[in-house]
Amino acid sequence: MTTAQNTDVLVVGSGFGGAIAAYHLAAGGARVTVLERGPWLEGKDFEHDYKLGSSYTRAFDFTVGDGMSVLGGNCVGGGSVVYFASMPRAPRFVFERHGSIGRRMWPAAINRDTLDPWYDRVAEAMPVTTQTWDDVTYAGGLWAAACHHAGRTANPLPVAVDTERCVNCNWMMAGCRFDAKRSLLFNYLPAALAHGARVLPLHEVQRIERTDDGGYRVHYDTVDEEDYRVHTGTGAIDAKLVVLAAGAGATPVILQRSEAALGTMPRAVGRYFSGNGERLNTAVINEDRAAEVLGLTRGEGPAYGANHIGRGPTVASWDRLDGSLPEYSRYSLEQLYFPPGLGTILAQTARGEGPTWFGRHKKEILKRWSSWLTIFTMSEDDNEGVFGPPPPTGNATRISQQMLGHGSLSYVPTPNTLHGWASSDAEVADILGRDGLAEVMPWTNDVVGAYTVHPLASCRMGDDPGTSALDDGNELRGHPGIFVTDSSAIPGALTVNPAMTIAAVAERAMPGIVRAARERGIDVTYGAPAPDGATSGRRGVLPLTTPLVRG
């Protein structure tokens, strides 16, 4: 028989959804425990190396499914440690999307206007700033110049990066050695710890069951710090309230595995997964044409030759983020640095026939690696993903000692999704192919299917119980006291980087979660300022006495 520890609130995961919940609840006086399946890394641990066992493989979770592969964070701080820190707000039209269900996906209580105060709060806490053209990398500048040449516009991205600290090393995906990336390690998480929250790394949650007093018991395995396939122990923690924030690839799996003990799950648990409509194209820049067509010069060197210089995305083209356009024809195009490894495997060759992730043509373009420019599409998909039966433990069957696993997600893109990808592919080819500037080819789906670094919607919120797992306050339908605040709660594709919206939705959920905690006997209040102590971002925040509208 398992002897359980106890806490007031148990938070599963330490990314945006988990860290924000942990901070507010701990600051309000609750005893908070956070379980994180990955290691606890910080600046000195982040290595500029792609070898097995480096911070790169330790901090990522790459799950190969049937038709869709998912790359996500696996460490304290979650995706914020390994993301590119791009923090745009979702366009207004996103909240009115119907998607595959033929009706508005988002709850009626949420639109861009009602979410803006919560966006403000996140922008203050991180903080988030919009880059100037002086901050833009050379690769971003080339993308902007190509957009201008093709009659399109381009914009510097808002980011959670201290540009004064950034040394443009281009290792953002492996964690920032220089503490320039404003991950959750520098705001919400240390603030939660300062208020007494406990964060336990290498604790992988397996299932949840009810306790006799109406609370919950959360069962976990501890994971070896070097080989994630090895479980070193088991345990359980009792809590009066549970916040699930393990990510869109893990939260539904935990709930599926818990169904036998908790009772029937909402139908939408593990359904309606969205890959944020993501797509990648590689352009191999013709250095002579870059000089002639765009007027670029760098002395005696190549006009571009900048793939390894800079950092993640700095410039995006948002011309197609127009709410008057039909659904599935709207997308953003973002210049992106993607490190070698998957890039060399999945990037097609521009003159290849058939699967071209190997062979003579691939070798030819790899010789020109420094002249590559990757363009990232985020479009509107149909929420096609469905999770099958969960594996025996965790969210996937581990294949290697770190990073790589095989999951139960299946994904078959619909004609709507394919149309969005084809439209964006054509636009990228038009922008970068003009006047012989570059050879452009989409990344192949032949190796690991479609792929996403921004998984969404596998336990989504909404007003319709038939198509949403959560009500508009992020509470799991039919299971009071269980809340979901991570990317799985977002109803569908956002057409932009989703971190800012995930965080804003989590912030919005907090007054209601605090109210539910009080109803369950937890002595907690809501009203803590942004983690840096300021309050200017709190315009429009609901007072605790304001009732939430339930779906």
UniProtKB/TrEMBL annotation:
List each copy of the Glucose-methanol-choline oxidoreductase N-terminal domain by range. 65-271
Q: In which pathway does it act?
A: Steroid metabolism; cholesterol degradation
Enzyme Commission code: 1.1.3.6, 5.3.3.1
What GO molecular functions are on record for this protein? cholesterol oxidase activity; flavin adenine dinucleotide binding; steroid Delta-isomerase activity
The segment(s) forming the Glucose-methanol-choline oxidoreductase C-terminal domain are 452-506
Q: Name one GO biological process term.
A: cholesterol metabolic process
Lineage top rank: taxon = Bacteria
Identify the keywords attached in UniProt to this record, alphabetized. Answer: Cholesterol metabolism, FAD, Flavoprotein, Isomerase, Lipid metabolism, Oxidoreductase, Plasmid, Steroid metabolism, Sterol metabolism
Q: Which family does it belong to?
A: Belongs to the GMC oxidoreductase family.
Q: What is this protein called?
A: Cholesterol oxidase
Source organism? Streptomyces clavuligerus
